[in-house]
Every structure is written in structure tokens, then in C-alpha cells.
Write a structure and sequence with these properties.
Elements (H helix, E strand, L loop, with lengths): L6 H8 L3 H8 L7 H14 L5 H8 L4 E6 L6 H15 L3 E6 L7 H9 L4 E4 L6 H9 L4 E4 L9 E5 L1 H14 L5 E5 L5 H17 L3 E5 L4 H13 L6 E4 L2 H13 L9 E3 L16 E3 L2 H17 L7 E4 L2 E3 L5
Parallel strand pairs: 1-2, 1-3, 3-4, 4-5, 5-11, 6-7, 6-8, 8-9
Antiparallel strand pairs: 10-12
Helix pairs in contact: 1-2, 1-3, 5-12, 8-9, 10-11
Keywords: DNA-binding, Repressor, Transcription, Transcription regulation
Protein name: DNA-binding LacI/PurR family transcriptional regulator
InterPro entries: HTH_LacI, Lambda_DNA-bd_dom_sf, Peripla_BP_I, SBP_2_dom
């Protein structure tokens, strides 16, 4: 088995002390240019890479961003993870992925982040108690809620403008002469699900169009089972707006299994514009979340706060766009 190259090996080859090697790889440490070049040449020859975790223990800071995610089964979030990893890498940061099995982040998840001395934290589809969020503030660790909003104005958030999006979806369906509709929500305690219903309901109320709400969980199985429930309740609605794409795809498959034609008998609209939505088997009409812009907003905020912590926060909303395909 090939042994791991360490700082001692580099020091021996470069003819310098081990502490000199450490200083070369720690930002801001004083070292002569001659020593720096000798160490870098030896490191390249040996294939040495400094241990980021060990560095963080010594400096009490790191080039690590913690990203907490629950819904890995939702294709939207692996897409988000990829974007964050790519973006932070350009700035010299690594992403520490923390998967939580619970709706609310647990103490062991927090301990993992703090043990790695993360420079910043991103929370995606998991919730966090105020006490926990405040613990990050006390330690001057910038925190961003991504694709989520909190009722408190003390924490920074970046998300799509869900209200405007769902209003436009409702207007689109109303203009097409659609009758009674169905809205399928995700987890009830999320701002995304609440706002998407709110904007949708506002427009339908103004238009005098009825709708029925079904609660689900942002998953494919949740959408499929909800569609079965809709059918067992009686008449097929004229349109279904699902709070995310993966539920909408489950709805489509359940309807099709029963011989229901889309969009001739029922129109279906999702939200996110995941890659699967454009597949020929689905060609789902949906609302595209501007992931790249949302990620850029998050990265820029975190890098600014890491450079000079202010604790200032705001709810940033980014406009998305309607994507019309063959399910409407």
C-alpha cells in the first residue's frame, strides 16, 4: 500500500524544517521566497497536499463551507450541491456535505460543523431552531438559508420569488380556461410550500376559481400516492399544480397508469425545472428556479462575511421563469 506523504517528507526533501513547510501552506505566515520555492518544488515532486482539517485546528479557521441537506432524493438538491461545490472550488474552498435524516438539524450535525471549524454554513431543506442558529452567530460563523426563508429577519436567506412564480402559474392556468384545480403542497412547515400555495390561491380567488389542497412531502412517491388519492376522491381536476417537479412526475405516472390523458384531461405543472422535467417521457411544464443566480448570491454573501463579519442579513429573492412544455 502506498504511504501518505506528509509535511515531514516534504521538509526532508526540501532541506528545511517541518515548521517551514507549515508556514508555506498557511496563509499570512512569514517565510522567505527561497524557502517557499524549495518547499513548493518538493511538495509538487512528492504529490503533497496539506491537510485542511489539520490546518483548521491550528489556525482556528478553515477553507471549508458546511452544507446541510436532507432531501437528497429530490433531484433539485444534488443539482444545488454540484453548483455550490464548483463555485466554492473557484474561490479555494471545499464543501463539507452534512446529510441529516431529520426535518430539523440535530445536535450531532451541529457538532460536525463546529468540529471542522467551518468558515460558513448553508442550510437547504432542513429547518433549524433559533437557539442553534444563534449559536453560529455567537461564533461569528455566517449562515445562509438556501431555498428557505425564516420568520426572523436576523438570518440571511436566498430563494426564488415563490409568490410571483405561483401567481404567474395561476394566471397562466386561469387564462387557458381551466376549471377547478388541485394544489399539492410539500412539507407544511416550509416557506417554499406555503408561499407557492399563497400566490396560487390569491389569483384563483380573484378569478373565482376553486381549488383543493392535498398535502404531500416533496417526493416522487408522495406525488404518486397523492394522485391516487385525488382519483379516489372523485372527478379528475382540470389542472394540478405540484409544489415541486419530482411530485409532479409522480402525479403524471399515476394518472397515466389509470389511462388519464395529459394535458387533454388534466394539465400538470411542477416547480424547479429539474433535468428530468425535460425528458421526452415527461416534458413537464414548470417554473425554473434560477439556481446559478441563487448560488452566486449565497457564495458572494458568505465570502463577504468570512472576509469581514458584520452579521447583517436580508431575505434575497431571485426571479425565476416559466417553462412551457407539453403537459399544459
Amino acid at each position: 500500500m502506498k504511504s501518505t506523504v506528509n509535511a515531514k517528507d516534504v521538509a526532508k526533501l526540501a532541506g528545511v524544517s517541518q515548521s517551514s513547510v507549515s508556514r508555506v501552506f498557511f496563509d499570512g505566515a512569514k517565510v522567505t521566497e527561497k524557502t517557499r520555492q524549495k518547499v513548493l518544488a518538493a511538495a509538487e515532486e512528492l504529490g503533497y497536499r496539506p491537510n485542511e482539517y489539520a490546518r483548521s485546528l491550528i489556525t482556528n479557521s478553515s477553507k471549508i463551507i458546511g452544507l446541510v441537506m436532507k432531501g437528497v432524493q429530490n433531484p433539485f438538491y444534488p443539482q444545488v450541491l454540484k453548483q455550490f461545490t464548483t463555485s466554492f472550488k473557484k474561490h479555494g474552498y471545499s464543501v463539507l456535505f452534512v446529510h441529516t435524516n431529520n426535518d430539523e438539524i440535530q445536535s450531532e450535525d451541529i457538532e460536525t460543523l463546529l468540529n471542522y471549524n467551518v468558515a460558513g454554513v448553508i442550510i437547504t431543506d432542513a429547518s433549524m431552531s433559533m437557539n442553534v442558529a444563534e449559536a453560529f452567530q455567537v461564533n461569528h460563523i455566517p449562515l445562509v438559508f438556501f431555498n428557505r426563508k425564516l420568520t426572523s429577519s436576523h438570518f440571511h436567506s436566498v430563494c426564488c420569488n415563490n409568490l410571483n412564480a405561483s401567481r404567474e402559474i395561476a394566471e397562466y392556468l386561469a387564462e387557458s380556461g381551466t376549471g377547478p384545480m388541485v394544489y399539492i403542497s410539500g412539507n407544511e412547515d416550509t416557506s417554499t410550500s406555503r408561499e407557492r400555495e399563497q400566490g396560487f390561491a390569491e389569483v384563483l380567488a380573484q378569478r373565482g376559481i376553486a381549488y383543493k389542497k392535498y398535502s404531500s412531502d416533496f417526493s416522487y412517491n408522495g406525488g404518486y400516492e397523492t394522485a391516487q388519492k385525488i382519483l379516489s376522491d372523485g372527478a379528475v381536476p382540470s389542472a394540478v399544480f405540484a409544489a415541486n417537479d419530482i411530485m409532479a412526475l409522480g402525479v403524471m405516472d399515476a394518472f397515466r397508469k389509470q389511462g388519464i390523458k395529459i394535458p387533454e384531461q388534466v394539465k400538470v405543472i411542477g416547480f424547479d425545472n429539474i433535468e428530468m422535467a425535460s425528458w421526452p417521457a415527461y416534458e413537464l411544464t414548470t417554473w425554473e428556479q434560477p439556481i446559478e443566480k441563487m448560488v452566486d448570491e449565497t457564495v458572494n454573501y458568505l465570502l463577504g462575511e468570512i472576509s469581514e463579519y458584520t452579521g447583517q442579513a436580508q431575505a434575497v429573492e431571485v426571479e425565476g421563469s416559466f417553462v412551457e412544455r407539453k403537459t399544459t
